[in-house]
Every structure is written in structure tokens, then in C-alpha cells.
Design brief:
By secondary structure, the chain is an alpha/beta fold. Among the domains are: about 5-105, Glutamine Phosphoribosylpyrophosphate, subunit 1, domain 1 (4-Layer Sandwich), CATH 3.60.20.10; about 110-260 and about 370-450, 3-Layer(aba) Sandwich (Rossmann fold), CATH 3.40.50. It is built from 25 helices and 16 strands. The strands form 5 sheets. Strands 11-10-9-12-13 form a 5-stranded parallel β-sheet, with helices on both faces. The chain has a 4-stranded antiparallel β-sheet with strand order 1-2-7-8. A 3-stranded antiparallel β-sheet has the order 4-3-6. Helix 4 packs across helix 19 (about 410-420) and helix 10 (about 230-240) crosses helix 18. The longest helix is centred in the C-terminal third of the chain and has 28 residues, at about 375-400. The radius of gyration is 23 Å and the shape is globular.
Length: about 525
């Protein structure tokens, strides 16, 4: 992982380059006629002549995904070098202000395609994948400072820790965070895995107050608006871990490479059953789904869980069913994926009509003919969600505590090996990450791992109604909303009232707006509604 700049004194050429997956950020742009670059946007603010004008075109994409994705940044004329790319500028180009095109030095799409095409001649077994993973873990364990690992007790982190412990001469140090709300607490599962593997495990018992204390700092830590609420426990576990070690290994990338999200398993099945039905029929089914409150479905799942295998159990079942009802009108597998991957399916509803730009589906999610629907989703998650959300979340949270986080799943050899596998070894029979489970169960009993996927979540619904209500009310006031005229203040206020009355699950949508407003209040950007 790296972001680097090289000045060739003889040729008078500047080269910027970024790592394969974008683990480290790199911003660049023209400020008052001069070229500037930095690893953090807050550093760009120090460039002479800096003008922090908001790029309102970016807002609609942000409201959809909860992060600023792609090449553009939240500011006009400031860009992000895309992963696996380099930018070369001569002295003449630097002086003239001409923006050259970035060149790819590594492409995830190309590597995945080549690996798929060589499957017949280069078969990767689970034992071969384990050897590749073990090699990546071993290389990332090389450090002259104290080393540890994040451990949630899920498949990815448990496998990384198991492979670490298999190569370590002493117990590996592992860390997890547990909340006082049992619905979101995975710490006991992590502790059980740690006990079986024999690691030296530490659990931070986090209270809501500890996480809430972080909320005012988020706009500074993340530089751009960022609304993945798991940023809060990530910041907490990074802070805890840094008290004991300087470097930590993580399981990031496992979901994107090996099919760990619900959409990887269910989207193809949903589409195959949904596509033959006429649109009016689908809309009628969606209406029927909504006749039962989301909380009612949660109660049904709780009863069914007594006899249902754990891998079929779904947390927040009602919320997910309502989301399924929302996507019944999709007209293609690509549109279905985009809706499932969105925090807000229709971000334009939260914007002033004059500021809506429309969502460029083809630009962010290109069609790739040689990939199946599931393989395409895996690759799109790698190129977009992982780069713009997951890695941003972890990098900013860890750097805030001066902790270096390394991700063995993002080793290029692991990526190539993953794409050399036939799809059924990753996703099959209603289960994702099948090959990782096969490897992991050689180190950890299946019973310690098999349970519904929780993610790294917080009880945001409850927090917005009680401990964060005053903070949210202030940000969602008419005066505060008027600072960003591209927003639809009336629609946002209505959503807030519905949330307070318990008339739907709107916490994530509101968190996206709240983080944008909090960011704007902290950084006070100039706003040009026509930018």
C-alpha cells in the first residue's frame, strides 16, 4: 500500500502513483494556478490561494452511497488518483495547468479476466489458496514494531488470525470491540475464537457514550463527508489496538474477493424469479410486503430462528424485506445491484429539484460481458464499495491513532488466486466464502463461526432518537439546511419526523445527510449551486 510522488530533476517530470486497491489516499489539483497534491484534503487547505468551493455535482452520488466515490473529490478542481494508476506531469504541464489523463499501471479488471481465462490450465485448490494466503500473512507479519490483529470472530478475521498463529512463535495479540447493546455485540464470538486459537486477546467494552463522543470529530478525521456508521466502532477498536501494538492485520477485502455480502448470494436468485414477472405484478407484491411492519418481520425471524439453520438467519430481517420491496421495480440485474448497494435508492428526493444531476450508471458500474452476474458484483464491490467506503473508513480511523493496518486479502497474489477459482468455490448453494470456510474449519470448529452475518454496526436507530437527538435536531434545522441549498429541506425534515415516530427505518439515510451537514459546518466550504 502506498501513495507516492517522484520528481525527476533531470527530466523535470513529476509522477504521482497509488497502490493497486487504493488503501492509501492521494489527492491532487490546481490551486490558484499552481499544482498541489497531498495524502489528506486538510493538507490541501494550506496551499497558497486555496478556495474550498464545494462540487455540488458530487452531492447526489454521496447521498446515494454515503461516501464520495470515483475520481472527483468534494471540492471543485481537486481530484483523487484512482487505485492502480499513475499521473505524469512535465514542468510545462505544471505551469500551464493542463490536466493530463491518469494511466493504469495495474488493473483489477484485467487481472481478474486473465485469471478467469486461465482457470483450466491453472487450477487453484483450497490447499493452494491456503498456501498463498499464508504467504501473504507471513509477509505482512514482518515488522520491527509490536504486531497484532483485529478479530471480530467472523470468517475473514478469524482466518487471518489462524494463519498468523500458525506461523507465530508466541500467542498473537488480537483485539475486538463489544457494545453494551447485545444486538450489535460480536465480542463473545471473537473471544471464543481467540480462546480456541490461543491468542492473547483484548476486548474493549464500548458504551454508547464512548462512540457518541467521537461523533463531533468525524468531519475532521474523514476530510470528506463520510457516512458509514461502522466508522465509530472502527475508530474505537483502532484506538484500543494502538495502545498495545503499532501494526495490525485485518480481514478487509475478504467479502469482496470471496462473496461475503448478502447481495452476492441472493441477488441472482431474486432477479431470476423477479425478471419474468410484469412490472405491475412486482409492484403489487411490493405493496403486500409493506402491509406488515418491518418490526413484525423481525419477530417472525426471531421465532423461525429456533429451528432454522444459522446460515439462513438474517438480522434486521424486516429492514431487508422492505429494501427488497423497494427494488422490485428494477429493469436489469445491474440496476438491481446498484439499488442493493445504495444507502439511498433515490437520492434525488433529498435534493432541490434544480440541483438534481441524475446518476451515471454506466460511468460507475460498466458492463463487463465476460463476467457472470455474481462475478460482476464481486468486481464492482472491489472497485467501488471497497475502495470508496471500506478502505477509507479503516485508513482514516487507524491513522487517527497512528496505527498501521495491513490487509493480507489485498495481496496481489491472493487477488489473482481468488479470481482463478471457479465461482462455485466462492458462492454456491446459498452461501458465500465457501473456500475460505473450508480452510478456516481446519483451524477453528464450524460451530464457533456459523451464525448470521452482523457486520460492524451500531444501534443508530436508537441513538438518533435519544442520545444524538439534540445534535441531529440542530443539524437538521431549517437554518442549518439552508447552508446547502442543493438539499431539499422539506423532504429531509419529513424523513426526520417519520424516523422519530418509528414510521420506518431511516437511520442510514439520515446519517448520510447528518454527516454532510456536520462536515459543511466544520469546514465551511463555499457553495455554488450551479457548479
Amino acid at each position: 500500500m502506498f501513495a507516492l510522488a517522484l520528481w525527476d530533476r533531470e527530466q523535470q517530470i513529476l509522477t504521482l502513483a497509488r497502490d493497486r486497491f487504493g488503501e492509501k489516499p492521494l489527492y491532487y489539483g490546481w490551486v490558484a494556478g499552481g499544482f498541489a497534491f497531498a495524502s489528506e484534503l486538510k493538507a490541501m487547505h494550506k496551499a497558497p490561494g486555496w478556495q474550498d468551493e464545494l462540487d455540488s455535482v458530487v452531492i447526489e452520488g454521496y447521498l446515494r452511497h454515503g461516501c464520495v466515490g470515483g475520481e472527483r473529490s468534494i471540492y471543485r478542481d481537486v481530484f483523487k488518483l484512482v487505485p492502480g494508476a499513475l499521473l505524469t506531469l512535465s514542468r510545462q504541464q505544471l505551469v500551464s495547468g493542463m490536466r493530463p489523463e491518469a494511466q493504469r499501471w495495474w488493473s483489477a479488471v484485467d487481472v481478474a479476466s486473465e485469471a478467469m481465462h486461465s482457470r483450466d490450465s491453472n487450477v487453484v485448490s483450497s490447499s493452494r489458496l491456503e498456501a498463498v494466503l499464508k504467504g501473504a500473512v507471513g509477509r505482512m507479519m514482518e515488522a520491527d514494531v509490536p504486531l497484532g490483529a483485529f478479530l471480530s470472530g467472523g470468517v475473514d478475521s478469524s482466518l487471518i488470525v489462524a494463519l498468523m498463529q500458525a506461523q507465530a512463535s508466541r500467542p498473537v495479540r488480537t483485539f475486538s470491540v463489544g457494545f453494551d447493546d447485545a444486538r450489535y455485540d460480536e465480542s463473545r464470538h471473537a473471544a471464543a475464537v481467540a480462546a480456541h486459537l490461543g491468542t492473547e486477546h483484548t476486548t474493549l467494552r464500548a458504551t454508547a457514550e464512548m462512540a457518541l463522543d467521537l461523533v463531533p470529530r468525524l468531519p475532521y478525521l474523514y476530510d470528506e463527508p463520510f457516512a458509514d456508521s461502522s466508522q465509530l466502532p472502527t475508530c474505537l477498536v483502532a484506538s484500543l489496538t494502538r495502545e498495545h501494538v503499532t501494526v495490525a492485520l485485518s480481514g478487509d477485502g475478504g467479502d469482496e474477493l470471496f462473496g461475503g455480502y448478502n447481495r452476492h448470494v441472493w441477488a441472482p436468485r431474486v432477479w431470476s424469479r423477479m425478471a419474468p414477472l410484469p412490472l405491475p405484478v412486482r409492484q403489487g407484491i411490493a405493496g403486500l410486503v409493506r402491509t406488515i411492519p418491518a418490526s413484525g418481520y423481525d419477530q417472525i425471524m426471531a421465532i423461525a430462528a429456533r429451528v432454522m439453520p444459522s446460515r439462513f438467519q438474517v438480522r434486521t430481517f424486516g429492514e431487508k424485506l422492505y429494501k427488497l420491496a423497494d427494488v422490485m421495480g428494477c429493469d436489469s440485474p445491474r440496476a438491481l445491484y446498484v439499488d442493493l448497494a445504495s444507502m439511498n435508492r433515490d437520492p434525488g428526493l433529498l435534493m432541490d429539484p434544480a440541483s438534481r444531476t441524475g446518476f451515471e450508471l454506466a460511468e460507475r458500474y460498466p458492463l463487463l460481458d465476460s463476467f457472470s452476474q455474481t462475478e460482476w458484483m464481486l468486481l464492482m464491490d472491489t472497485l467501488t464499495y471497497m475502495v470508496d467506503d471500506v478502505l477509507v473508513k479503516v485508513d482514516r480511523a487507524s491513522m487517527a491513532s497512528s496505527l498501521e493496518v495491513r490487509s493480507p486479502f489485498l495481496d496481489p497474489e491472493v487477488f489473482q488466486a481468488a479470481w482463478s477459482l471457479p465461482l462455485h468455490q466462492r458462492v454456491d448453494q446459498g452461501e458465500g466464502k465457501r473456500v475460505l470456510r473450508e480452510i478456516l474449519y481446519q483451524h477453528v470448529p464450524r460451530a464457533l463461526i456459523e451464525r448470521p452475518k452482523m457486520g460492524f454496526a451500531v444501534p443508530l436507530d436508537d441513538w438518533l432518537r435519544v442520545p444524538l437527538r439534540e445534535w441531529a435536531e440542530d443539524l437538521l434545522s431549517i437554518r442549518s439546511l439552508s447552508a446547502l441549498p442543493m438539499l431539499n429541506a422539506g423532504a429531509i425534515r419529513q424523513l426526520w419526523q417519520q424516523h422519530l415516530k418509528g414510521q420506518g427505518h431511516y437511520a442510514q439515510q439520515l446519517w448520510v445527510v447528518l454527516q454532510l451537514l456536520a462536515w459543511a459546518r466544520h469546514w465551511k466550504p463555499g457553495v455554488n449551486a450551479c457548479s
